[in-house]
Amino acid sequence: MPLAVRCSVQFLRCIALPIAVLLAAGCAPDWPPPPQTRVEVVTDTIHGVEIPDPYRWLEDQDSPETRAWIDAQNEYARQIVSDTALEERIAGRLSELMEIAQVSAPRKAGDSELFTLRRPGELQARIYRRPKTEGEATGERPDPDGEYELLLDAQALGFDDWASVDIVDVAPDGRLLLYRIRDGGLDEIMVRLFNLETLEDRPERLPEALYGTIAFDGTGEGFYYIHRSREDGPRIRHHRIGTEMSEDREIFGEGYGPETFLRLEEIEDGRLLLLGVQHGWMRNDIFVMDRASGEVHPVIEGERAHVNARYEEGRLLLTTDLDASNYRVIAVPTAGVDPSRWSDRSRWTDWIPEQEHLLRGYTTIGERTYVELLANVASRILVFEAGDGAALEPVDEIPLPEYHTASLSKLGEDGAMLTLSSFTVPQTRYRLDLETWERELIEPPRPEYDGSDVLVEQVWYTSKDGTEAPMYIMRPRGVELDGNLPTLLHGYGGFNVSVTPSFRAQAAVWVEAGGVFAVATLRGGSEFGEDWHRDGMLENKQNVFDDFISSAEWLIENGYTNPDRLAIMGGSNGGLLVASSFTQRPELYRAVYCGFPDLDMVRFYTFTETNNMPALLEYGNGGIPEQFEFLRQYSPYQAVEDGTDYPAVMFTQGDLDTRVPPLQGRKMAARVQAASTSGLPVILRYRPRAGHAGGRSRVPDRAMDTAFLMMQLGMSYGEETP
Predict the structure, then answer these.
(1) What percent of the residues of the chain are helix, what percent strand, and what percent coil, each to the nearest 5?
(2) 25 pLDDT exceeds 50?
(3) Burial class of 719 by CB neighbour count within 10 A (0 to 12, 13 to 18, 19+)
(4) Is 701:686 a contact under the CB 8 Å cutoff?
(5) CA 660, CA 675: separation in Å to the nearest integer?
(6) Has residue 17 got a pLDDT over 60?
(7) pLDDT for 229-249, tens place per residue?
């Protein structure tokens, strides 16, 4: 039965009930129509193909007509979702799970320590100072309930409640602090220099712009910063304190365009600079610069490989997928070796060989090295020691609980801190005995959450081309699979990102409401190495959507849910994922949350307001004919078809998003509203101070998102609506 017919029949059964009861009972009310949007078709011809765009006028973000349209959309979204008893109860529970203190690890500053702290109920963190303690050795962070000296507060600096401050770096002698100000959700930041003795800003400051690494040099007499220009790309500069910013010297970056990132690190007491060039998420180059002569020597250049360099006294350690999809660590001897010879591969040796599973990191404590692996999307930590050859050899393994994400870090000279998190246990820190593996609690899990009534399982599904992938599923214990459980499916699938077990307040609330929460592992991430990543990027991007659709089909075929009770959610690249999924298979889903998404992939390369040109190396560039061809096959905005029964969709977008142009969310909402014939609501929640990764209301936004999806799937939460 078509979706529109199903909804109409359901509505006839429920027509006599009040709307609040309809929502709780899963009956669709007669949703009000969305605001009308003017159509004015602009047709582009790209590589000989005509691409019509009926809502090009919505790209003008500041026009009065666009602003009036945004206001109307926000009002419509509130008509559909806000101020319901369901949303209020969800917000109450999310407050318990999300409104917790957040405190950073302390940074040494002379005889003091600096840290950021956001207490419950506060929108942003502030920068505080306390006398230096043994906190670093014990792994203990400041007590959130303690009394500390407040140093910096964005609001006291004249910004509104959405602005935030954060620590960038502390000078070696502890007298100066570099800190940043982020105005709302902008990726662009301001950087200022603060005197920790006089408690005043110095004159030097960096204007609002995109920056990479910002760090004091080894002497503390100056600092490096990487300025990222949308037009010219990144450049490394050095500022000498006490001079005019206009006198800053550019030391590296000429010739690199806006699709690249740079990084730097002083090594060998500042005699050399270790330089990294990241070409999108495709590959890295590593160079070393002699500061005195300015000579730059390549260590590894031109390989299609990811490389992360770590310098230790006498050697350079390269974590890389060069000839090793699951990564390995290469040792490059540097003691007494001219930097021009560091690229001589005959001198390189495997220090940690490629393993069966993905290598994510390592920590050396004493004579042992602890190697973090990702095995079928769960952590393992192997213990390595020196063997007979140059390479380390595994000798033991730290016991870890099932389906957890784990990391090990050094405490003092020979201590260790183990950090664990899972779907049912928030992040928890332990002091780990490296002989007995006994754990002593350092920081209890925050928030407090009892997940004993939640069943977590891992299943494997088969994608369209036969590729097998795992999926995590959370559901209430004891609930029988009847093919009708309200299910929320999440995914990402891109940019070499691994989605591993972690506590999610929204998922906890969903399962408490009797629902199923699933996380599908998709190609495009790094869960199974670089080959897995490449199988989901550029011309292989459709594999990611096929994986996600197949995971949804698996949930239906195996008795968890059905299309009337299945919702999907994703943000950023995950927003592209769910948009492509519902435009390709609209009958498969009942509701969609699509947050801060890339949607017009054909014209993405023309969006000059974005600061994310490196994404073109992951997605593809519509200005290149062969890449245009695969982009237009799935680009969600162009894939919308009139007269289609689309599911209910909630788009969210931020006015200050400079990473993913918000024009895409505006146009897509208008397009789906006009095209859909299902009678289900398509709404846009447009947030004026939000950017891509900041400037959002934690609880209110998540409560509205969750309420929308629960309403569409006929769920209730907490006390039943009378």
Answers:
(1) 25, 35, 40
(2) no
(3) exposed
(4) no
(5) 24
(6) no
(7) 999 999 999 999 999 999 999
CA neighbor of 523 nearest in space, from 485, 488, 496 = 496
CB atoms within 10 A of CB 301: 14
Would you say 114 and 122 are in contact if contact means Cβ atoms under 8 Å apart? no
Tokens at 29, concatenated: 């009310």
Give the C-alpha separation, 527 to 360, whole Å.
10
Distance CA 157, CA 180 (A): 12
**What confidence category does residue 515 fall into, taking pLDDT thresholds of 50, 70 and 90?**
very high
Q: Write the DSSP symbol of residue 400.
A: -
135: left (phi over 0), alpha (psi -120 to 50) or beta: alpha
HSE, CB side, 13 Å, CA atoms: give it for residue 591.
24
Three-state DSSP at 543 gives helix
β-sheet bridge partners, residue 461? 469
Burial 67-93 (b: 16+ CB within 10 A, else e): eebbeebbebbeebbbebbbbebbbeb
Running DSSP on this structure, what letter comes out for residue 228? Answer: E
| Domains by residue range for the chain, with CATH | 31-49+66-96+453-592+600-649+671-685+694-712 (3.40.50.1820)
The pair of structure tokens assigned to 166 is 């954060």
Give every CB contact of residue 587 below 8 A, 6+ residues apart in sequence.
3, 563, 645
Q: What is the pLDDT of residue 412?
A: 80
For residue 16, pLDDT beyond 50: no
CA distances from 325 to 103, 132, 283, 321, 498 (A): 36, 43, 13, 5, 14
φ, ψ of residue 334 in degrees (nearest 5): -125, -15
- Report residue 376 as tokens: 């079928």
- Strands of the sheet containing 415-421, edge to edge, are 405-411, 415-421, 428-432, 439-443
C-alpha dihedral sign at 450, 452, 453, 459: positive
Tokens of 360: 């994510």
- Tell me phi and psi for residue 96, to 5 degrees: -65, -35
Instruction: Identify the three-state secondary structure at position 208.
Output: strand
Q: Angle CA(501)–CA(505)–CA(506) in degrees, nearest 5?
A: 100
158 contacts: CB under 8 Å, gap ≥ 6? none
- CA–CA gap between residue 445 and residue 404 (Å, rounded): 14
Q: What DSSP state is assigned to residue 677?
A: -
> Which strand (E) or helix (H) includes residue 567?
strand 566-571
Helix (H) or strand (E) holding 619: helix 616-619
pLDDT for the residue 14: 37
**How far apart, in Å, are the Cα atoms of 30 and each of 18, 83, 683?**
11, 18, 15
Q: Would you call 289 exposed, middle or buried from its count of C-beta atoms within 10 A (0-12, 13-18, 19+)?
A: buried
Residue 667 to residue 654: CA distance in whole angstroms: 14
Cis peptide before 142 (omega within 30 of 0): no
Helices (H) and strands (E) in the chain, counts: 14, 38
Q: What is the mean pLDDT of residues 118-129?
A: 95
Instruction: List beta partners, residue 460.
Output: 470
